[in-house]
Write a structure and sequence with these properties.
By secondary structure, the protein is mainly alpha-helical. It has a 5-stranded parallel beta sheet, sandwiched between helices. Strands 8-7-9-10-11 form a 5-stranded parallel beta sheet, sandwiched between helices. The protein contains 57 helices and 12 strands. α32 runs parallel beside α34. Among the domains are: 98 residues, no CATH class; 101 residues, Death Domain, Fas; 143 residues, Rossmann fold (3-Layer(aba) Sandwich); 138 residues, Toll/interleukin-1 receptor homology (TIR) domain (Rossmann fold). The protein is elongated, with a radius of gyration of 40 Å. InterPro entries: DEATH-like_dom_sf, Death_dom, TIR_dom, Toll_tir_struct_dom_sf.
Length: 1207
């Protein structure tokens, strides 16, 4: 009776307040009253009653609660309950339906046997609900059931219905819906993505439909739309068919949103639209984009750059969206096989406009024009296939050059140099008009990246080279001969073709420089080779330097110096006759007699020179026969004696004599030709003398005018010098030169004491002491890493402290004259700033402090904010100074790093100032990170700096710290005074029998080679350079081991870490000396900036490159900057190795050896050789040895042919 009364009261509760209070009282006093049904028919009756329009919510709630403890009753009536929920939603009674969801379905969820029926019900109610009730539906019904569904391990056969439910949620088109759709899609390893093509197409359309929603909140559920699209993008990388399904609608959306203004509302699209736009661009199939769409994208970007200031609230989200559009455009252009010339012209026009726009915003971040220009410019070489394609970009390259040297945008130098390094070599006709710029880079600034390009351009347009010949000769020995070898190659290129350009002043200058730089004598081979051409054409220039050449030959045993002497002796003999022939033969024979420990090669060349003279003057040579007898055991001397005695020669010797006769005939022709030229020049000179006499009177008339012009020229010269100083240095030109002149004068308080007071290390001061102007180098570094007013204040204060009031007075007078204020007091620390800046988010501070300690023990001082400097502007100023003064910025990234405004500010300042950036993942996270830093970090390879072992006191794996040190070493050398014992030789791999060198023992104990420890030896003249990414270091060391055992000289970066030089310079030298590059290709290798740089240089130098594919990549050639280099190079496949401990075996390794045999035939791999030439220990290892290792001999060097010796 109580049960019936309760139900009756609930049924009529809508009629009166009294009836509505009865169920409340009864359910409170008798909570179990309604738990059982006496008749099963009652269940159907009560559910049906719930659907009556006039029924009260109290009744519905009461009926739903009756199922809470009746699991069997729920199982029996589940279908009727689903039907009830559907009908309640169709009546817009969402709250009543929610009672059944909360009190029945959620409580008994694990007892639901037919999830398919439930999902169909959920999909149905999403289509039934009124627009006004959709938000309530999400909150009341979708939210609780979606979390239950995602937490339950469901049968994968239901995956398609799950996906349909996701589509139904998204089709609600309300702010709350994407959150639950994203939650449903996040189920791992559940959806059959490859079979969901059509549903994914509908999903993309559903996301696009949200672009009309306006939401003023910064954070909202709409942000989940980007997560959904990013998930689809990740799956498309695995299942290519997804990209076919998304392409069309994604392309339409991106083009639509590129207008910024929504045509339907007349207002700008909301921020969530542009957040969707970034992953949406990734869902466009690059291979399906035609030329006209690329042209349309260029027009869109051009419009954004041109009208940036006119667009309402062009913000961070717009910026990132258009960056994604730029990246899309660049990748689409690369996919096009052949670009029409009109598109090249459009790209060039866009780049030129971008280069004329500001490159940084007020906060230091990159502008859209800068970012877009960079994205397109860096990929240019990949889609330039002929000269016509390249010509439109000349004006862009010239603009970059102006920006670098006239507007001091130094970070753009790499853009300019990379373009010409590739384009200049491939299409020299395009580069011909820019030779003066290239020569300025090489001769004035000693930037040698373009040396190979310039050498190839000489024959096309020699005039600019001839105009700079004097400058080149004076620059050869600049910086103590640091660039002597490289500049000598250019000198040799010019003189080989036009030896007549060399004058006696040039010869005087060269011999003086050689004598003053004997420490660099080993690098003079190309100079003597070039002088040999001059001696052959103008032997009289060497008359007074014969003794000097002899001295070089005797003291230095220099074959190159003798080659020059040989040309001089032979040519002067032909010109001057028998007496000179007799003198020169006597000189050569005495050279053999008097030179101690003369080498076999040098002795052979001397005998051959005697033969060259003897061919012309055999009678005189015959008079020297007795002098030759003591040396007749030498085969070359025996040939000479047989020639004198006219004995019958074997075929080989007779051929050599015939060749010698031809050589002499050629020399005589050249001499006769030169004499005729001299006679013609003499006649011309006489005629000119007559003309000059007649002109003398006229010249006097113009003297007065010339004097006036001279004064103007001197004024302009001073102005040019002033501008040059501003262009080439950070030091103010008003006083820089005068100050440096005084500080360079050696004294107790000269530039060295100033540098110590600034805080620079001994190794840095030693490096600057090798420069032409040490003071300028020191001050340039100081002003480059500080703001001008701070740098000036610090300089004046320290000059006063060290007693250099004379220098201080010059600066103060110059500042006063220029009308600049002299800072009286600035709150700064007057010291050099650490070379490493640690950027981190505060939750990682403990780990970063540990990292800072270890880096300092390895020789690198670090700057990090430890919370002791206060906040606000003061902290920001210090961070700004720390980044500007650093050589490398390390980003210690945890999951909250990308969301931190301060961390984002630090990253943007790093990028805008052109500082190298190294990301560390301090904990597991997606890469690139979500948010503002995603597009920036996608261009960098991170180092995984987590997964700490339990027994390790550090927060990172040991090998990853070594990898970090290796990355830092590219940009800055450690301070030797800071390095602790723990980090001496950190770069030496801990493996046994690393270098397979055996001590050689001869009869003479002096020649014994002693290797005291197992430290590796540095190969300075390698045959093979191994280019790789550090993740495969263990395998690469095994490759190094195998090739070394076979007798190859290999260059590996981990053995070049010692010393104070930049590792980039060592890599440059290694590639230039190598005969072959082994490129170990992996996905990370393709993305590595340093690996790209190595391969680009090797390709520019036309070095043979052998790709070894170690890991699966999507396509060959790999996408990106390396595509053009690898396009025509077949790889050797090492991907399928089943033996984890050794991959360098089998037919693949035999293919490697076969390629090496073709490129380096002199190495006999059949006879294992274990000795390397020209090797030395790393600098840091040398400190622990008593003596420097002796030179180790290799296989015999192939002797020069006589023809080559003569040439």
């Amino acid at each position: 009776m109580q049960e019936k009364f309760l139900k009756w009261a609930a049924l009529n509760s809508y009629q009166s307040k009294i009836w509505s209070e009865v169920p409340c009282v009864l359910t409170y006093t008798l909570p179990t009253l309604f738990n059982n049904y006496t008749n099963s028919d009652d269940v159907q009756y009560y559910l049906t009653t719930c659907l009556e329009p006039s029924i009260s919510s109290d009744y519905v709630k009461l009926i739903s609660k009756s199922y809470q403890c009746q699991v069997d009753m729920f199982k029996t009536n589940a279908s009727q309950i689903y039907t009830t929920i559907v009908k309640l939603v169709s009546q817009n009674r969402i709250d009543d339906a929610g009672y059944f969801m909360d009190n029945v379905l959620i409580i008994h969820f694990n007892s639901i046997s037919n999830l398919e029926e439930l999902l169909h019900m959920l999909i149905h109610i999403c289509s039934l609900v009124n627009i006004e009730s959709r938000s309530l539906l999400c909150k009341t019904l979708i939210s609780p059931i979606s979390y239950e569904l995602t937490n339950k391990k469901c049968n994968k056969n239901l995956a398609r219905i799950f996906f349909d439910f996701v589509l139904a949620i998204l089709n609600l088109n309300i702010i709350e819906a994407p959150k639950y759709a994203d939650h449903m899609l996040s189920i791992n390893d559940f959806y059959p993505w490859k079979q969901l093509d059509k549903q994914i197409t509908h999903l993309i359309q559903s996301c696009i439909n949200y672009d009309n929603i306006i939401n003023d909140e910064y954070f909202s559920e709409l942000d989940n739309l980007r997560k959904i699209l990013s998930l689809i993008n990740e799956r498309s990388k695995i299942h290519v068919t997804i990209l076919h399904a998304t392409h069309e609608f994604a392309l339409q959306a991106v083009l639509k949103w590129s207008t910024i203004i929504n045509n339907d509302t007349g207002k700008p699209y909301d921020k969530h639209v542009f957040e969707m736009g970034q992953p949406m661009t990734e869902l466009i199939d690059r291979r399906q984009i035609p030329v006209d769409i690329c042209s349309k994208f260029l027009e869109i970007l051009r419009k954004q750059i041109d009208n940036n200031d006119e667009i309402c609230d062009f913000n961070y989200f717009h910026h990132n969206f258009f960056l994604s559009v730029t990246k899309l455009l660049a990748e689409c252009i690369v996919q096009l096989k052949n670009l029409p010339l009109t598109l090249h012209q459009q790209i060039a026009s866009f780049c030129l406009v971008a280069f004329n726009c500001p490159f940084t915003n007020e906060d230091g971040s990159m502008t859209l024009s800068h970012s877009a220009g960079l994205a397109l410019w860096c990929r240019l070489p990949q889609y330039i296939h002929n000269e016509d394609d390249a010509y439109p970009y000349e004006s862009c390259a010239d603009r970059l050059y102006q920006l670098v040297y006239k507007e001091e945008e130094q970070q753009l130098y790499q853009w300019w140099i990379n373009f010409w390094c590739i384009i200049g070599l491939k299409y020299p006709n395009v580069a011909v008009n820019h030779i003066p710029q290239f020569l300025d880079e090489i001769i004035n600034r000693k930037r040698l990246d373009l040396l190979s390009t310039v050498s190839a351009l000489y024959n096309k347009r020699p005039e600019p080279f001839h105009a700079r010949l004097d400058d080149l000769i004076h620059a050869l020995f600049d910086c103590n001969g640091q660039h002597l070898t490289s500049l000598s190659i250019l000198f040799d290129t010019i003189v080989k073709v036009h030896p007549e350009l060399i004058t006696s002043k040039h010869i005087d200058s060269l011999f003086t420089s050689i004598k003053n730089h004997m420490s660099s004598f080993d690098q003079t081979n190309y100079i003597f080779q070039a002088l040999g051409y001059v001696a052959n054409a103008q032997p009289h220039l060497f008359d007074k330097y014969q003794e000097e050449l002899l001295h070089f030959v005797i003291e230095q045993h220099s074959l190159s110096a003798f080659s020059c002497l040989q040309q001089y002796l032979v040519t002067s003999t032909i010109i001057k006759g028998e007496k000179t022939a007799d003198e020169n033969l006597t000189l050569l024979i005495n050279l053999i007699k008097n030179t101690k420990n003369i080498s076999t090669d040098l002795k052979s060349q001397i005998f051959y020179t005697c033969q060259l003279i003897g061919v012309k003057y055999k009678e005189i040579l015959a008079t020297k026969r007795n002098d030759l007898i003591p040396f007749e055991s030498d085969s070359a001397c025996q040939v000479l004696i047989n020639f004198i005695d006219e004995n019958k020669l074997n075929e080989e010797n007779q051929a050599a004599i015939n060749h010698t006769l031809d050589e002499i005939a050629q020399i005589e022709k050249r001499v006769v030709h030169t004499e005729r030229d001299v006679q013609n020049i003499t006649k011309v000179v006489k005629r000119q003398e007559l003309n000059i006499t007649n002109l003398n009177t006229r010249v006097n008339i113009f003297d007065t005018r010339i004097n006036d012009i001279t004064e103007q020229v001197e004024y302009h010269t001073r102005e040019i010098e002033r501008i040059d100083m501003k262009t080439l240095s950070y030091v103010p030109s008003e006083w820089g030169r005068d100050v440096c002149t005084l500080l360079n004068i050696r004294a107790d308080n000269d530039w060295r004491l100033l540098g110590k007071r600034f805080g620079y290390s001994t190794s840095e001061l030693k490096h600057w002491s090798m420069q032409m102007d040490p003071s300028m180098s020191l001050l340039n570094e100081w002003f480059m890493t500080h703001k001008t007013d701070e740098a000036t204040y610090g300089l004046l204060k320290i000059l006063n402290d060290i007693g250099r009031q004379d220098v201080e007075e010059i600066i103060r007078k110059a500042l006063t004259k220029a009308g600049e204020l002299i800072p009286d007091d600035i709150s700064i620390e007057i010291k050099r700033l650490p070379p490493i800046f640690l950027s981190y988010q505060w939750s990682s501070q403990k780990a970063v402090l540990k990292l800072k300690t270890n880096l300092e023990q390895a020789g690198y001082s670090c700057w990090m904010d430890t919370g002791q400097m206060g906040g606000g502007d003061k902290l920001f100023a210090k961070i700004d100074a720390g980044i500007r003064g650093a050589k490398v910025v390390i980003c210690c990234m945890n999951k909250t790093y990308a969301q931190s405004d301060n961390c984002s500010r630090e990253v943007h300042l790093t990028i805008s100032t052109g500082k190298p950036l190294i990301p560390l993942q301090m904990e597991k996270q997606t890469w690139p990170p979500e948010g503002a830093l995603g597009p920036i970090m996608s261009e960098y390879l991170y180092i995984r700096f987590y997964d700490r072992k339990n027994n390790d006191e550090n927060y990172w794996p040991t090998d990853k710290f070594a990898e970090l040190l290796g990355q830092i070493r590219y940009y800055v050398a450690p301070d030797p005074d800071m390095i602790t014992q723990q980090y001496y030789n950190w770069f030496v791999p801990r493996v046994d029998n690393l270098i397979f060198l055996q001590s050689q023992t001869t009869n003479d104990n002096k020649d014994k080679i002693i290797i005291k420890d197992n430290l590796p030896l540095v190969v300075t003249h390698p045959q093979i350079m191994i280019s790789y990414q550090w993740d495969y270091q263990k395998d690469i060391i095994n490759l190094y081991e195998k090739l070394t055992k076979l007798g190859y000289r290999c260059w590996l970066d981990i053995f070049q870490m010692g010393g104070g030089d930049s590792l980039f310079e060592k890599i440059d030298a290694g590639i230039r000396h190598a005969k072959c590059i082994l490129s170990c290709v992996t996905p990370k290798y393709i993305k590595s900036i340093n690996c790209r740089r190595e391969i680009a240089l090797a390709d520019a130098l036309q070095k043979p490159i052998v790709p070894l594919l170690l890991e699966e990549i999507s396509t060959w050639p790999p996408a990106g900057p390396m595509a053009m280099i690898f396009a025509e190079k077949p790889y050797i496949d090492f991907r399928c190795s089943t033996n984890d401990s050794e991959i360098w075996i089998g037919k693949e390794f035999e293919l490697v050896l076969a390629r090496l045999k073709q490129i380096i035939p002199e190495v006999q791999t059949e006879k294992s050789q274990r000795h390397l030439i020209d090797m030395q220990r790393p600098t840091t290892a040398m400190k622990r040895q008593e003596k420097k290792p002796q030179r180790i001999r290799s296989t015999p060097v192939t002797p020069q042919s006589r023809a080559c010796s003569l040439m």
